[in-house]
């Protein structure tokens, strides 16, 4: 059985690894990119998408394809609670139902659900959607890490689009050792050892990859979290000059745009309340944010320069245990999804 999108790449293990597993939530874009009255077109996880808000401001994610002739609905007309295709005027609502065919009133298309619509929501300043392997599959509960839920945590979202496969960012995030080298001039990662031994510690939602002889000094651990969405959580030590509050925790996720590009989301968070929150937010915007963008730029340059066949010529060692484990997990899930699809 082929995937509902018709994209043949999603019918192979390699394609799912390059374009993203199904039955997962993915972050699509910052919420501010989707303004009322506008139609936004995005390519994400092997799908061509239309994103828009209805008159109440609720965000909707659908195929960017008119069910009549396949024209781009993103080139259509926003009508508040529906979209009108600019080619022949078909009107489709937020559930993918054709509500009007102006050229042929009473047409059999009217009242038919003919456009794939993806469960969607907004959270922590971003738009998320559920990409089920079956078109009408119920989404799993949306479960972000506590830093994006607990009101005692505050943060800022940094969003990037890079010209590299999304798995390069996953590898990078699950590789704490690169902080001591690539980011050695960073204000938060300039100290600590440049050699280490690591261990893997299982958690209910994934695993932690951590240094055995150093903690709270540099980029010393990463946590892989799978709650029917892929998250990475890590902690970066903060100097006293960064103001009050707990450890600086980054919550990350990455979403394929296509096989060679991806979007990445970095929520920079800190557990702070009251006046301490106000103080930290001021210091972050005034002093710290540009430094954090410098670190992301170092990652971007490194990832975009890597060849697309980098995996095929690697020589991995002990520091790469988390990468090996993660790739096996993703590959195993891709094979499981394809077997389940074939059995239906």
From TrEMBL:
Which InterPro entries has this protein been placed in?
Cholesterol_7-desaturase, Rieske_2Fe-2S, Rieske_2Fe-2S_sf, VanA_C_cat
Which Pfam families does the record associate with it? Rieske, VanA_C
Q: Which SUPFAM superfamilies match?
A: Bet v1-like (SSF55961), ISP domain (SSF50022)
Keyword annotations: 2Fe-2S, Iron, Iron-sulfur, Metal-binding, Oxidoreductase
Q: Where is the Rieske domain?
A: 26-129
Tell me the domain of life: Bacteria
What molecular function terms (GO) are annotated for this protein?
Answer: 2 iron, 2 sulfur cluster binding; metal ion binding; monooxygenase activity; oxidoreductase activity, acting on paired donors, with incorporation or reduction of molecular oxygen
- Protein name listed in UniProt: Rieske domain-containing protein
- Which organism was this protein described from? Streptosporangium carneum
